């Protein structure tokens, strides 16, 4: 007997029925039930922007339930750096399933977590590793570390810069841009931290003096400075000069303040270096990593710190249920091994060149404020907020998947994307900007 709410059709659709009239009907039922009952990121129920049912993802393409193939220009929000369905990563998950999918990390440990912790410590130069289950939680843990470390000296505030984004949980929201960020609804209940202005793209003596004044004024109460190194991600896709990060490191050392690097978006090669901090030649006291950590397979993040911070913190009062999940740890290790073996620097340089060439025509379009490229990140910034549904309609008609926001039409493609596919992505972006 069919269910009254259409859930039988939904179950058939997600079980893989496709390629027939019945399959199309089941996909339509999935989309209809989703629309009325399921929240999507930064959306209402029902959403104002169409949601598309995905049947399959392989390589750099996603296949919709209606059979359309789209080049993924987003790497699933910057996480799937190797593309989809990589045999090495598939094998890592499958092999780990033969031993265990999960076991609690309280009082227990396992080889996948220890191997991954050792790899991350070697990559970052930070020997203490706390596993979290999302980027936002990794930032929460970093904030807790800093506040526990600073509490004996009465240091209970953080400093950051405007234009940043660090996640959607409460501690993370408090250090996102307080004016132009997406969390203004909660401004009345978030802790009030210290903000300097947005860091500029070029070296600036004036900005250096502003940072010096701000830190000097608040040093007595600052436990840490938290920033996204070199690239401000979801806060506006802005790039800034490494000098400003070096200035913050110097000031943190001078005043005994911790420096937290939120590398969740910038880590694992996206900017052309392994980490954003590498552009400035600095090492933070605390680092957050996530997104690309597992190659886009499973949710996992980590917060790493120095020996000194770990000693100062002592018992860290945090413990996610799925902390150090063995499946996620195994595929994360496989992803990092794969990254070490592949010519990712050359791939990112090739993408950077392709983005720069392909997006150049957008510079001449009316309504375009800026076009910028850094590593495997390409951005068209418009004068006014974009119509997300219209942009997606335009780019999908050209066989491309993008997810614009605010005034940004941008891409962060998977590293193995080919030249023709990359050209299709940039062409679709320019077409969308022209349409607007």
* DSSP helix fraction: 25-40%
* Class from helix and strand fractions: alpha/beta
Number of helices: 14
Shape: globular
CATH class of the largest domain: Alpha Beta
Describe the structure.
The chain has 14 helices and 16 strands. By secondary structure, it is α/β, with parallel strands linked by helices. The protein folds into two domains: 20-43 and 55-85 and 343-377 and 388-435, Aspartate Aminotransferase, domain 1, CATH 3.90.1150; 87-341, Type I PLP-dependent aspartate aminotransferase-like (Major domain) (Aspartate Aminotransferase, domain 2), CATH 3.40.640. β2 and β3 (69-72) form a beta hairpin. The longest helix is centred in the N-terminal third of the chain and has 17 residues, at 21-37. The N and C termini lie far apart (48 Å). The mean pLDDT is 94.
Helices, strands, pairings?
Elements: H1 7-14, H2 21-37, E1 54-58, E2 61-64, E3 69-72, H3 75-78, H4 87-97, H5 111-124, E4 128-132, H6 135-150, E5 157-161, H7 170-173, E6 194-196, H8 205-218, E7 222-227, E8 231-232, E9 238-239, H9 242-255, E10 258-262, E11 286-289, E12 301-305, H10 307-313, H11 326-341, H12 344-359, E13 368-374, E14 377-382, H13 388-397, E15 400-401, E16 408-411, H14 419-435
Keywords: Aminotransferase, Biotin biosynthesis, Cytoplasm, Pyridoxal phosphate, S-adenosyl-L-methionine, Transferase
InterPro entries: Aminotrans_3, Aminotrans_3_PPA_site, BioA, PyrdxlP-dep_Trfase, PyrdxlP-dep_Trfase_major, PyrdxlP-dep_Trfase_small
Cofactor: pyridoxal 5'-phosphate
């Amino acid at each position: 007997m069919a269910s009254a709410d259409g859930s039988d059709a939904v179950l058939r659709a997600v079980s893989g029925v496709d390629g027939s009239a019945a399959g199309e009907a089941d996909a339509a039922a999935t989309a209809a039930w989703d629309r009325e009952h399921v929240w999507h990121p930064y959306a209402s129920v029902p959403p104002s922007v169409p949601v598309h049912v995905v049947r399959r993802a392989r390589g750099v393409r996603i296949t919709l339930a209606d059979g359309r193939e789209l080049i993924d220009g987003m790497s699933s929000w910057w996480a799937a750096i190797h593309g989809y369905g990589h045999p090495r990563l598939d094998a890592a998950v499958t092999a780990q399933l033969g031993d265990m999918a999960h076991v609690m990390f309280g009082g227990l440990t396992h080889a996948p977590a220890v191997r991954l912790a050792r790899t991350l410590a070697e990559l970052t130069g930070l020997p203490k590793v706390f596993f979290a289950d999302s980027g936002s939680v990794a930032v929460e843990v970093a904030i807790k570390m800093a506040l526990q470390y600073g509490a004996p000296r009465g240091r209970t505030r953080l400093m950051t810069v405007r234009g940043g984004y660090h996640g959607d949980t409460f501690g993370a929201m408090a250090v996102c841009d307080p004016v132009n960020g997406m969390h203004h609804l909660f401004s009345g209940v978030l802790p009030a931290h210290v903000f300097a202005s947005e860091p500029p793209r070029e070296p600036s003596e004036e900005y250096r003096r502003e940072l010096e004044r701000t830190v000097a004024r608040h040093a007595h109460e600052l436990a840490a400075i938290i920033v996204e190194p070199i690239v401000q991600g979801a806060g506006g896709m802005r790039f800034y000069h490494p000098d400003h990060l070096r200035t913050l490191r110097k000031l943190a050392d001078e005043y005994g303040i911790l420096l937290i690097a939120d590398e969740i978006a910038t880590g694992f090669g996206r900017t052309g270096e392994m980490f954003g901090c590498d552009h400035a030649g600095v090492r933070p006291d605390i680092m957050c990593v996530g997104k690309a950590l597992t190659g886009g397979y499973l949710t996992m993040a980590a917060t790493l710190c120095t020996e000194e911070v770990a000693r100062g913190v002592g018992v860290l009062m945090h413990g996610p249920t799925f902390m150090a999940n063995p499946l996620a740890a195994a595929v994360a290790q496989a992803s990092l091994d794969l990254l070490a073996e592949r010519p990712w620097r050359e791939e990112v340089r090739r993408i950077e060149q392709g983005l720069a060439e392909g997006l150049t025509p957008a510079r001449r379009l009316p309504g375009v404020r800026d076009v910028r490229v850094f590593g495997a990140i390409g951005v068209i910034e418009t004068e006014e907020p974009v119509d997300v549904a219209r942009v997606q309609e335009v780019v999908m008609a050209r066989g491309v998947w993008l997810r614009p926001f605010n005034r940004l039409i941008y891409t962060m493609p998977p590293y193995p994307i080919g030249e023709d596919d990359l050209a299709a992505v940039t062409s679709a972006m320019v077409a969308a900007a022209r349409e607007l």
